[in-house]
Amino acid sequence: MIDEHRAQRAFNFFQHLRHTKGRFYGQPFELLPWQDALIRDVYGTVNGNGFRKIKTVYLEIPKKNGKSELAAGAGLYHTFADGERNGEVYGCAADRSQASIVFDVAVDMIDQVPALKKRAKLTLSQKVITDKVSGTFYKVVSAEAYTKHGLNVSACVFDELHAQPNRDLWDVMTFGAGDARTQPIWWIITTAGDDPDRMSVGWEQHEYALRVLSGDIIDPTWYVVMYGYDGDDIYNEANWAVANPSLGTTITLDTVRESAEKAKIKPADERLFRWLRLNQWITTKLTTWLPLDLFDKTVGNWTRADQLGKDCYLGLDLSSTTDLTALAVIFPPQGEQLDWRVFWYCWIPADNMDERIRKDHIPYDKWAEQKWVTATPGNVVDYTKVEETILEIKKFHNVIELDSDRAMATMLLQRLEQAGITCVDVPQTYASLTDPMNQIEILLKGQARWEEPLKTVENAENNEIPQPPINHLLKGRMTHEDNPVARWCFGNTSIAKNGQGYIKFVKEHKGKSVDRTKRIDLIAAWVDAMTRARYHAGTSVYETRGLLVL
C-alpha cells in the first residue's frame, strides 16, 4: 500500500538539500528519475498499521553515480525528519575513514540548509550530528564491532558493505538491533565487491538481494535496486548506461571512455573498469604486472664494475624458510650515466635446495653454479652472509641507504645501522608501493610524465576514479643486468589493485595457499629500493661536462 503523503514528504526533504560536489556544489538536490522512484517507494510503502513497510534498502551501484549524497540524505532524513524521538542513526563502513565520507557530505549539506543548521549540534571530533529538537543523533561507527553491542538502531546506513573485513559489525548492527523501534530501516549502499572467493558478508547479502529481485525469495521488507552489466561486451557504450543510471549527469561519458581506454591497455585497469565502472563482482584474484619481454628489452650494456664508486640505494627482501632472500642495488642517473641501473644478489638455504629443485622444477643449482644465487648452510638463509655482502657493497659503492620492511629484519637492520648504513622502513602497503612500482614501469618503458598528487575519493572531481600519485618527474630509462633469477621473478609478479587505483605486488595462490613455486623476491627488493631512490638528487652530465654544441 502506498501512502502518497509519506512519499511526498520524503521527496520534499531531499529536494531541500544541496549538492556538495564539483560543478553541482550548492545546487538543489534534484532527484534523478531512478532516485525519485527509489525514495517514493521506500518511504511511501506502508503496512496495514500505517508504518513503513520497507526495512532494508539494498542499492548496488557503480562509483560516481551519486550514492554518497543519496546515503547522506537518507542519514539526515532519519535524523531530522522521520519523527523518531531519541532515535539512533548510524553510518557504518569498513573503517572510520570510509564511514566518514558519507558523514562529511551530510555535514556539508547541513551547512547549506539554514533550517537544519539551526537544529543541528555538530560534534565533529566524535563524528556525531544531533537533532536538538527530537534528540536523535547520527553517528559514525566502523568495523571494531566489539564496542557496538546494546545499540537501539532506528536507522543504519551501511556504505560499501563489500569492504567489511568480516561479518561482526553487520551482525551487531542488524541482529535484534532495531527491535525496540516501530519502523527501523537499514540502507545498504554499495558497489560490487573485490571478492573472488565469495566469502564476504557483502557477497552473502548480494546473493540474498538477487534472490529477492528474482522472486526466488519473497521478502516484502526488502527493497532491491541493482545496477550493473555482467557480460563481456564491456566496451559497448550502450552497456555503460545499463550499469550507470546517472551517466551524463554525475558521471560523464568522456570520463568512462577514458577509463575504457586505460582498460584496453592494462589487465589491472580492465579489472578495475569491470569492477568500478560496470559493477561486476570480481572473479579473478590477480593480474600480471608487466610483460616479460619488457624485462628482456631493458637489459643494460654495462657491467657491475662500471658502477664502482657511484651512489646507490639498496632494497632488501628477507625470506622465510622457503623463500629467497633478495637484495637489489639501484644506481640513479649521475655524472655521465643517464639511465637508472639495477643489479641483484640473492640467497637460498642449502639444505632444502635439492628438494625444491625436484618439486618446483626451478634450476637453483645451475643458478648457484653461475653465482646468481648463493646457497647458505642450513635450512634457513644465514643472515650473516647477507650482512657481509651488504658491508662489502659499502666498500665499493656509495650506499645512500638501505630500504626494507623493518618488521621482517629488525636485528639485521640494527647491526647494519651500527655499521654506519642508514636503514629506512618500507611498509608493504598499497600506499607505500604504488609510486615506486609505477615509476619503475615508466622508466622501463622509457617514458616520462607528471601527475598531480592523488585525489582521494572524498575530493575527487570530474567523476574520475582516483589515480595513484607520481610525486615528481623521472626522466630517462631504466636498465638492469641480465639476471635469470630476476627475470623469473619478474614474470611471476602479479599485482592487486584497490578501488582507489593503488597497486602492490602479491604472491600467486593455489586455493588458499601461496604458490611457493613462483617467487617474486628480487622484484620486491627492487621496488623497496625504488621507494627512496626515486627521490635521489644526483648531478647530471651537463653539470660535469657542460653543454655540447653541434
List the helices and strands and how they pair.
Blueprint: H1 4-16, H2 33-44, E1 56-60, H3 67-80, E2 88-92, H4 96-112, H5 114-119, E3 120-123, E4 128-131, E5 137-141, E6 155-159, H6 168-174, E7 185-190, H7 201-214, E8 222-226, H8 237-243, H9 253-265, H10 267-277, E9 287-288, H11 292-297, E10 311-317, E11 325-331, E12 340-349, H12 353-360, H13 364-369, E13 374-376, H14 383-396, E14 398-404, H15 410-418, E15 423-425, H16 430-444, E16 478-480, H17 484-492, E17 494-497, E18 503-506, E19 509-510, E20 513-514, H18 521-533, H19 541-545
Parallel strand pairs: 1-7, 1-8, 2-5, 2-6, 6-7, 10-14, 12-13, 12-16, 14-15
Antiparallel strand pairs: 3-4, 4-5, 9-17, 10-11, 11-12, 17-18, 19-20
Structural description of this entry:
The chain has 550 residues and is an alpha/beta fold. The chain folds into 2 domains: 54-226, P-loop containing nucleotide triphosphate hydrolases (Rossmann fold, 3-Layer(aba) Sandwich); 292-533, 2-Layer Sandwich (Nucleotidyltransferase, domain 5). The chain has 19 helices and 20 strands. It has helices spanning 4-16, 33-44, 67-80, 96-112, 114-119, 168-174, 201-214, 237-243, 253-265, 267-277, 292-297, 353-360, 364-369, 383-396, 410-418, 430-444, 484-492, 521-533, 541-545; strands at residues 56-60, 88-92, 120-123, 128-131, 137-141, 155-159, 185-190, 222-226, 287-288, 311-317, 325-331, 340-349, 374-376, 398-404, 423-425, 478-480, 494-497, 503-506, 509-510, 513-514. Strands 3-4-5-2-6-7-1-8 form an 8-stranded mixed β-sheet, sandwiched between helices. The radius of gyration is 28 Å and the shape is elongated. Residues 448-471, 509-514 and 539-550 have low confidence and may be disordered.
